[in-house]
Here is the input.
Amino acid sequence: MIVTVFRSRLREGVREEYVALANRINELARTIPGYVSHKDFYANDGERVAVVEFAHEEGQRAWQTNPEHRTAQKQACEKYYTEYHIQVCRLERDSKNSSCPEKRRHGLDPRS
Here is the structure.
């Protein structure tokens, strides 16, 4: 699994226009072989974080070099972002517990 963490801050007054571009790029990402998921998070201080997962390096590389994505990156840098930071990471460990006590307490776990 390859995980890309993309952190950014938008310039003032461009949010609506940027969202249209971001929606298109998110649709495009889903078409890349190996795409797993994409989630966006927003902090109170204005920072935006996108976490994108690909099953393998080939998929992440295809996404990184996709011509439409590259054009959108350039446009976003010139027009929408005040700053950004990208980290591409290889997953070393994955742990998931769907039977946490909180889940059982609220009746969300069938074993409760």
Summary: The radius of gyration is 17 Å.
